[in-house]
Amino acid sequence: MIRLISPRKLKELGILGMNRRNIGFIGKYNPRRNYRLVDDKLLTKKAALENNIPVPELYAVIEAQHQIARATAALAEHEAFVIKPVQGSGGKGILVITGREGDQFRKSSGTLISAEEVRRHLSNTLAGLYSLGGRNDRAMVEAMIQFDPYLEKYSYEGVPDIRVIAFKGVPVMAMIRCATHASDGKANLHQGAVGVGIDIATGKSVRAVQHGHLVTTHPDTGANFDELQIPYWDRILDLGSRCVEMTGLGYLGVDIVLDKVRGPVLLELNARPGLAIQVANMAGLRHRLAIAEKIAAETDDHHKKIALARQSFGVHA
User: Fold this and answer.
1) Domain boundary, last residue among 142, 174, 205
2) CA distance 20 to 15
3) What is the pLDDT of residue 185?
4) How far is residue 190's CA from residue 274's CA, in Å, rounded to a whole number?
5) Phi-psi group of 263: left, alpha or beta (phi > 0 → left; psi -120 to 50 → alpha; rest → beta)
6) Of 125, 142, 159, which one is at a domain's C-terminal end?
């Protein structure tokens, strides 16, 4: 039996809906002129480097169809890499290559694909198949993150990433998205990745969900999510807050990965972050955003905003 929750109950729980998010936060606090910095991953990378924010190494940029053959030949010097549409969204069009077997490329799932399939993927990327609004695009090739071995048991066939929602420089909610076989090694909740809510105060797991249902263990590795504690939590909150300052966008989703050598690395930014993070945390964003607005009105100090966020949004706050 499907149980419907009344609008009144959703309001009491502080659940942020799409319309209120779009109008009350994205529309109100994210100036349109600043969107390009976030929607264009190359501009994001450039701005991050200028602000001493670590990002994955860039191997190549492919801008035209005639460059594809030469680009795939040049990739022979790299054992592993990631291809992304520069203006992609929602994880669409990301191709992760983890190794080689002869003249074939191995995807994170273990599936082997040919060089021709890689070229076809690049061609589709340039044609805008994976891009915002279906516009012609460019493809970027990045180094594959060698993620922190502590997280290895919490993700399968892919790199887990951490999403922090920050408002006016105040981190308000976080989760880690753990890849599964069902998600084809991608940290995408809609494709079957597990979303684990994270306590802002401590970096410890709150609860985990897959396809909207509570889970306690990873479906492929059996790892217990109750034992998950995110390393480098102080640096992750600092990075999320700094990205708001860097972009001039008040309401922002910051995606971070943990490299085993470099620690927290910025993966990408999202000016229109999804709302599933509320499900992973079993908590609504509206109440936290109201508190964050008061914190931002109280202080401009970067470190104090983070300290007050940890005090206000901890599980036991």
Assistant:
1) 142
2) 10
3) 82
4) 11
5) left
6) 142
CATH code of the domain covering residue 273: 3.30.470.20
Asked if 31 and 80 sit in the same domain, the reply is no
CA distance 210 to 97: 25
Q: Is the dihedral of CA 269, 179, 115, 105 positive or negative?
A: positive
My answer on whether 96 and 173 are in the same domain is no
Residues 97 and 85 grouped into a single domain:
yes
Amino acid letter, 141 = V
pLDDT per position as a tens digit, 50-74: 999 999 999 999 999 999 998 888 8
Q: Angle at CA 208, nearest 5°, toward 206 and 209?
A: 145
Count of the separate structural domains present in the chain: 2
Range of the domain at 122: 58-142
Alpha-carbon gap, residue 79 to 143, rounded angstroms: 10
H-state helical runs in the chain: 7-13, 18-20, 27-29, 35-39, 41-50, 68-74, 115-126, 233-247, 277-281, 285-298, 302-313
